[in-house]
Amino acid sequence: MLLSEASSAGGYFNLVPWVVFFPVIGLLINAFFGGLFLKRGKAGEGLVGGIASAAVGLSFVISTLLAVSLASHPEGQVVVLADWITIGELNLHWGFQVDTLSVTMMLVVSGVGTLIHIYAIGYMHEDVRHKGDPSRFRRFFVFMNLFIAAMMVLVGSDNYLMLFVGWEGVGLCSYLLIGFWYDKGQDGIGNAIAGKKAFITNRVGDFGFMLAAFSIFWAFGSFNFHEVFEKVPEISQALPGVILAITMFMLLGVTGKSAQLPLFVWLPDAMAGPTPVSALIHAATMVTAGVYLVARSAPLYTAVPQAQNWVTMVGALTALFAATIAVAQFDIKRVLAYSTISQLGFMVAAVGMGAFVAGMFHLVTHAFFKALLFLSAGSVIQGVERGHHHVEHDAHLKKQLKGHAHDFDPQDMRNMGGMRKQMKLTFWVYLIGAVALAGIPPLAGFWSKDEILAEASTLNPKAYWLLTAAAFLTAFYMGRQIILVFFGKARSPAAEHAKESPAVMTVPLIILAMLSFAGGAFNLPGLHTFTHWVEHTLEFVHAGEFNMLVAGLSILLAVIAILLSGWIYFNRYRQMQELPVAKRPDDPLRQFLGPVFTWLNHKWYVDELYKMVILDPYVALSRFLADTVDWRFWHDWFHERVIKAGFDRLSALLAVRVDLGGIDAVANGLGAATQRLARSLRQVETGYVRNYALSIFLGVVLIIGYLILR
Amino acid sequence: MLPIQYYIGLSAILFTLGALGVLIRRNAIVIFMSIELMLNASNLAFVAFARLHGSLTGQLFVFFVMAVAAAEVAVGLALIVAIFRTKQSIDIDQLNSLKG
Q: What does pLDDT average to over chain A?
């Protein structure tokens, strides 16, 4: 039915619901039949993963068709699928907004998603065996498809409430996948705690989003994007404070979902999930939902410059703050996690200051190279794991381990080093990703980041300096990571015996590397392809000026940062390796930064601060409420003393006084009275006939007397 | 013809005698005879009034009363004989086993 309509005026627009349906179909097939497939061993795994990948791939095909249609009908279309809620004036439907902005997101989600799904076939094949539960292979792909479906609902929605459905859906999938190995991690519950942390932190943000959505309905009487945005000029005249409140509440939602200050703490812990999850959900797609939300709500934000300023500063501060932390992390995925937070800060700052195209552009390129980096990191981790496995099963090599085998961490960069020889392909794609992220031309990251910086230099100088500093640190920590992982000598037997990953993992890496390399071509200065693409949807778009000075400065800083990291980690690290183990510091940067390094390594003690300021008082309050208020007051005093004792007394009163003393007494009294009466009446029954006869005579006399005298 | 008052007076005297007999005497047969006296007192009143009103209804009632009295005597004497056989007495003061 939908196919036949596709040829009509709207092009392929009517196909849009299928971007959601395909992943749902995929997850249903795997949920019901995946168990059967898996019985066939590795071929079955390929089938499960293939179905999941194909489902996302078909979504990508649909997205591409939508993009093709948009090229000829750039104004887009709203495709209504079904009615949802009809209450009074509120008339909500499941509707898909097909326009250049949403289709851009769909392309990114399904495109990068497909590659990550394919990669995950290889990754999870080993991961489930390494973690010892192959039956979870199917669950993984079901969750991943569910995530894609939810994300498509989020980006495809034409109203805030349906967007919220997707928003919560991706949050749920994030929770499920962070805690995928819920029985693993620190003390056997570390991953479950990480999932819980992500979920609860996001809840704080969701609360902001909900308030924003309610306020929108209160002020505009609608959830629909078109209807809301049409009324913005009118309402911003009448109720400027309300728009500010809406945008600020929405900002809270954005800080939750997109891991900005102050709610970013969940994202680093979210690395507990399998690496494809980190790549798909916690780098490329879900965390960019906040950026998309601000870009989508552009008419609201442009109406209140104050809110724009807040968004920009939150983004810029996050960018710098997270970048400083990334410098001092040892976990390969944590570095990337903080890098993601930092880059999300760039995007949020960009959309905050009104540079929507720059923000969305960075979102796209970041999806490419951050997915690439995470997937390559996964490849590295599994390479090390394979090496570790090899070492453990080799009696001769095992002696060299000297008992370190049990707490070996395959993600710790201190255990790596020199891996460019063992994992050539991974090294090269990692390098491309890192250079793209560091902002070296002509790779993708340079163009998008530079566009943000150029916009910031004119729109918000304060943010510009913060972002520039962050960009400098970005180049530094990526240089550090590359050198720690791939250069120098292997610092553990596992790294020495690392093995390259199979083709099912490396092919997606190569494709992503190409995208990371050339992704900047979407919006080259002067051509502005992407700007013209997005401007059909966002009327506030302006083509960013290419600022030679800004570009030059950022390239210069990036190069300096890379050279600096090279100097520190090549020279100093090599010198350090000569020292005896006891005197050897774990990171040469510690020598330069001293206590600051410890401070950074502990993430500015933000988790501890939150624990002290929020968690501990909260726990203390809960304790107080549970022990004192609930147990002692409600239970011991109120329930036991007041209610139970009162009830006892009342029932005693009822039993003794009312029941025994009243009701029983009446009943017994009646009986006794009847007996007494009967006893006295017995006197009458003498048994002598003449007494009875006399009574009869007297009675007759009385009756006749009455009749006569009447 | 004698005035009606004489008949009624005689009937009342006879009835009173009968009633007193029932109440005072202890011999069951005497009580029986007293009851017959009361019945015949009423018979006398019936016949007197029937004559006064020139109607036969009163006389008809007298026949009924006589029939009932005959039946009563038959049953009553049978009872007295049965009581005498068990108690060897017809003193009704000894028949007080219904005393409450």
A: 88
